[in-house]
Design brief:
Blueprint (H helix, E strand, L loop, with lengths): L3 H16 L4 H29 L6 H15 L1 H11 L9 H10 L4 H16 L4 H4 L19 H14 L5 H6 L2 H17 L10 H11 L7 E4 L6 H8 L3 H5 L2 E6 L2 H13 L7 E5 L20 E6 L33 H10 L1 E12 L7 H12 L3 E6 L12 E6 L9 E5 L5 E3 L2 E3 L2 H13 L7 E4 L1 H6 L21 H6 L2 E2 H5 L2 H13 L1 E5 L2 E4 L3 H9 L2 H26 L7 H16 L7 H25 L2 H5 L2 E8 L6 E9 L4 H8 L1 H28 L5 H6 L15 H7 L5 H37 L5 H13 L2 H28 L2 H21 L4
Parallel strand pairs: 1-2, 1-4, 2-3, 4-5, 6-8
Antiparallel strand pairs: 5-7, 6-7, 8-11, 9-10, 12-14, 13-14, 15-16
Helix pairs in contact: 1-8, 1-10, 2-4, 2-10, 2-14, 11-12, 11-17, 17-25, 22-33, 23-24, 23-33, 24-25, 25-33, 28-31, 30-31
InterPro entries: D12N6_MeTrfase_N, DNA_Adenine_Mtase, DNA_methylase_A-5, DNA_methylase_N6_adenine_CS, Restrct_endonuc_T1M, SAM-dependent_MTases_sf, T1MK-like_N_sf
Family: Belongs to the N(4)/N(6)-methyltransferase family.
Enzyme class: transferase
Length: about 850
């Protein structure tokens, strides 16, 4: 069985290997298009099998039965499948037929072209033609493109390799668990990162999508969602993921995309994620030039949606090619037209026009929309006066592959209470750097969403801007006007530099130490004059006193007990996940609960704890729960899979099996806990090898000392660099040496060291091989108790200690500040002046003693 993570890795590795020098933004159309055609073929075969009531059979047998049925029933069979799917693929045009031709040596690129063209023709006459029309148009999948190969043979070879990449994937089975959709979305994201600036047209980074989607999903009673610049559809799908399963069943998806190839990608992406054709309405067109979707019965209102999400092109120039006027219903609310030079507000107003009265809109735009003047200033004022702007979220720079500028997410609502302030969040400093990109971690996303939901104020992070304050700022929403970044730099104290001592006000500012162990801190300093103190003991001793204080230990113990109960609870739940378990919901429950647990303790950053659990899911649980849900926990624990490794390079590059690995139980843990004696024996031999190498090294050094016994006996067998002995010369020298002499004894010693090292090295290799084989066999017979113990360590082995560390993090941070203050003011200016005078005096004395001869 293959997991979603393994599929993602395999397909992306395959894409990199097969595309060669072809641009990622272009190659994605071929790879994702053919992957989708495999899905359509698999769905056709599955539908034929189910409607025909056929028993279980191999894929080749099913294709053979389908071929016979087509010959017998013809159009009747086509219509039967089309009534179920909205399309059909004839046997001769199936993906499986391409594979058969490849295996028999009869493959031709033209067959692929014919198949894609035939699909276009068959759906053109059906009622569902709009759902599938143009998916494989020659403008998107041009198999004559020389980028695929300079000649027909090269193109044929590359296309065959790409077709084979999906050969063993059952797309229907993978779609049921959303594995296929996740893999498709992953590939889109990877292609976007590889495409750089070209990616902006079709992809919103996952972490930005998450912020927007999680906020939009808080809207109650969502029945329809809309993205006017839909790209690959990732925003709509992310929003779907955060809605209840019951809501998803009846959800209507709307989107519009200007780029035809990307428009096709959107439809494929939604279909692969299980969105039914009748539930999605995607249009290929320019969102701004002509309003869409329109309501014929209410032309001045437009179709209204419960949630609108969008990531439009930033500051699009010359957007108003259609010559639109302010009389356009979309722009009437603004009173003026957005400037032709920047289309940001044009997109925002379009989305707002289609937002339902109780809906939520989330749009990502450049920061300029918050403060630019002229027409944009007028629009911003009108939106604020109408009370439509709900929240402003400033994000870090360099989140997107296509621009390094910082962006802002604006949340708009039409049903805000009169006088309700605008929430402003500055999350621009909350990120980590991964390669060239800045990334929001799961904890950063959670903090943004929680702050939005709770409408909370936090110094340096969030602010509730009242209408009065916004008016004072002349409707300028630039974030620094409302949120001042916290300056953690502690000002220098002139008196402390001159006279020494740490300012008492700096000690008072150590809020966490003062509120938890103020007495211990007070006993660790002594006043040297009014308002200034010095440490009465080394900082290491102070740290030890504080961290071992009974109150801190009690807090740590409390977290330890809570964390242990938490992990025990979820270990039992995870062991018992089944096919119908909602793994996404389980993950969210775990993340919410850890925040609730940690919020009971003061001064602990609950989002750091949130990140610990999020990392456990990312690193192990996503993979393992998928496997456990399809089998059962103990069966999965006793299952092993081939360990495939890549060998060779270039044309000789290949995958080979190198033993076995546990499906969920790591070989390393089995080795560590069940074969400790064997490991200890191997380590003992390795230690002896190191001792021998040390003895040999000592002999080498001794052989370099002139006239020493070692130099006389062994100097002649050092290698050219003089850093090691030539082993092949030892026996020859022994033959010439007289028994009983120092030279003979040293050579014999050297011979034995080499022999012992060789023997031990062989023994270690044999032991390691035997241990590796034993571990691989042990997987198959692990007891339930062993699986419990090993998997508990794998999933939760470090979590309790990590949670306890959260207690010490803020304390250690303030202790480091205390150390810095001590270092800063230890050397006073007067002491430095005195040292300088002493050095000058010593120098003058030295000069006077110099005698010129």
């Amino acid at each position: 069985m293959i997991t979603s993570e393994e599929i993602k890795r395999r397909l992306w590795d395959g894409a990199n290997e097969l595309r060669g020098s072809m641009d990622a933004s272009r190659y994605k159309d071929y790879m994702l298009g053919l992957m989708f055609y495999k899905f359509l073929s698999d769905k056709t075969l599955e539908t034929f099998k189910v409607t025909s009531g056929l028993r279980q059979m191999t894929e080749s047998e099913l294709v053979e039965e389908y071929t016979k049925a087509k010959a017998e029933y013809g159009e009747q069979l086509d219509k039967m499948i089309q009534n179920v799917l909205g399309y059909y693929i004839s046997p001769e045009y199936l993906y499986q037929t391409w594979l058969k031709d490849i295996n028999s040596g009869d493959f031709e690129v033209q067959k692929v072209t014919d198949s894609l063209n035939n699909f276009e023709r068959t759906i053109a006459v059906s009622g569902d033609s709009d759902d599938f029309k143009g998916l494989f148009s020659s403008s998107t999948l041009d198999l004559t493109d020389t980028a695929l190969g300079s000649n027909l043979n090269e193109r044929s070879k590359n296309i065959k390799s790409l077709i084979l990449l999906f050969a063993d994937l059952n797309m229907v089975a993978l779609q049921k668990g959303d594995v296929l959709g996740d893999a498709y979305e992953y590939l889109i994201g990877q292609f976007a990162m590889e495409s750089g600036k070209k990616a902006g047209e079709f992809y919103t980074p996952r972490q930005v999508s998450e912020v927007m989607a999680q906020i939009a999903a808080k809207t109650s009673d969502i029945k329809s969602i809309y993205d006017p610049t839909v790209g690959s559809g990732s925003l709509l799908l992310t929003l779907k993921k955060h809605l209840d399963k019951d809501v998803q069943k009846n959800l209507s998806y709307y989107g519009q995309e200007k780029n035809t190839a990307t428009y096709n990608l959107t439809r494929m992406n939604l279909l692969l994620h299980g969105v039914r054709p009748e539930k999605m309405t995607i249009k290929n067109g320019d969102t701004l030039s002509q309003d869409w979707p329109e309501d014929p019965d209410r032309p001045n209102e437009g179709v209204q949606f419960d949630a609108v999400v969008m990531n439009p092109p930033y500051s699009a120039k010359n957007w108003n090619k259609a010559g639109l006027k302010v009389s356009d219903p979309r722009f009437e609310v603004a009173g003026v037209m957005p400037p032709d030079s920047k289309g940001d507000f044009a997109f925002l107003l379009h989305g707002l026009f289609h937002l339902g009265q109780n809906g939520t809109m989330a749009i990502v735009l450049p920061h300029g929309v918050l403060f630019r003047g002229s027409a944009e200033g007028v629009i911003r004022k009108r939106l604020l006066d109408k009370n439509y702007i709900d929240t402003i979220i400033g994000l870090p720079s360099n989140l997107f592959t296509n621009t390094g500028i910082p962006v802002v997410v604006i949340i708009l609502k039409k049903n805000r209470k009169i006088g309700e302030p605008v929430l402003i969040i500055d999350a621009s400093r909350s990120f980590i750097k991964v390669g060239k990109q800045n990334i929001l971690q799961e904890k950063d996303i959670a903090k943004i969403v929680d702050t939005y939901v709770e409408r909370r104020k936090e110094k340096g992070y969030s602010h509730l801007a009242t209408r009065e304050v916004i008016l004072q700022n002349d409707y300028n929403l630039n974030i620094p006007r409302y949120i001042e970044a916290i300056d953690e730099e502690i000002p220098q104290d002139v008196d402390a530099h001159l006279l020494g001592g740490i300012p008492q006000k700096n000690i008072d500012d150590l809020k966490i130490l003062q509120s938890t162990v103020s007495d211990v801190l007070g006993q660790s300093v002594k006043e040297i004059r009014e308002g200034y103190v010095e440490l009465s003991k080394p900082i290491e001793e102070i740290s030890n006193d504080i961290l071992s204080d009974s109150r801190i230990v009690r807090i740590s113990k409390g977290i330890e007990n809570k964390a242990k109960s938490y992990t025990d609870k979820y270990f039992d739940i995870i062991r018992n996940v089944g096919k119908n378990s909602n793994l996404t919901q389980l993950m969210e429950e775990m993340l919410v609960e850890i925040k609730e647990i940690l919020s009971e303790f003061h001064y602990i950053d609950v989002y750091d704890g949130y990140q610990i659990v999020a990392e456990i899911w990312k690193n192990t649980l996503i993979h393992d729960t998928e496997i456990v849900s399809l089998r059962d926990f103990y069966t999965a624990g006793r299952t092993r899979e081939p360990n495939m490794v890549t060998k060779g390079t270039g044309n000789n590059k290949r995958e080979e099996q190198d033993g076995w690995v546990g499906s969920i139980v790591p070989n390393e843990l089995i080795e560590k806990h069940l074969y400790s004696a064997e490991i200890e024996e191997i380590e003992s031999k390795r230690d002896r090898i190191q001792e021998i190498e040390k003895e040999l090294s000592d002999l080498v050094e001794a052989a370099k000392v002139e006239d020493s016994d070692e130099a006389n006996a062994l100097g002649g067998i050092l290698n050219e660099t003089g850093e090691a002995f030539e082993t092949k010369l030892v026996k020859a020298e022994l033959k010439n040496a007289s028994k009983g002499t120092a030279e003979y004894n040293l050579l014999k010693k050297l011979e034995k060291l080499f022999a012992d090292k060789s023997e031990l090295s062989k023994a270690v290799r044999a032991d390691e091989k035997a241990l590796k084989e034993a571990v691989q066999e042990r997987i198959l017979i692990l007891t339930n108790e062993e699986i419990d113990s090993l998997m508990y360590e794998k999933w939760f082995g470090n979590i309790v200690h990590a949670m306890i560390d959260l207690v010490e993090v803020p304390l250690k941070k303030e202790l480091s500040i205390l150390q810095m203050l001590h270092n800063r003011y230890t050397d006073t200016l007067s002491a430095i002046d005195e040292e300088s005078r002493d050095l000058e005096s010593a120098f003058e004395a030295l000069m006077s003693e110099l005698v010129v001869r």
